Fold:
Amino acid sequence: MAPVGATRCVRLLCFMNEHNITATVPAGDRGNDSEAAHLAVLRLLAEHPQISQRELSARLGVSLGKVHFVVHALLDKGLVKVRNFQRSQRKLAYAYVLTPSGMRAKLSLTRRFLQRKEVEFESLQKTIALLRRELDAADPGAASVPRLNGPDTAS
Structure:
């Protein structure tokens, strides 16, 4: 017997399929996890060039190994350079500097990320509107589900 949560997921997927609602991650868009990771690291390095990989890991909420992998991928692509500096008397540290191609890549990744998020946002808005109509039709006398104030709505 499937767990209750799994049954709900299957029902939701069937519902979305019946009503021609696309998932929030468009088909063929699954490789963008690495793009999102690259963008997040590039943004933090641009703001804080002397940040350590351990600090990057903590701020991004990902493992130190993943941060190490992403930083080295950015170094291999020539998007970031490393400079040594003296953090204290005994310890050398690194500063990560975005190269000109790194700055261009950051802008390009930001554009693509924003486009994907806007598509996801529009899809979510359609899903929410459909679900509200379904609730209203099923139980017209019930109190409506309260609307959350988003960034574009007045409080």
In short: The chain is about 60% helix and 10% strand. Helices lie at 4-18, 32-47, 53-60, 64-76, 100-138. Residues 84 and 94 are 5 Å apart (CA to CA). The mean pLDDT is 79.
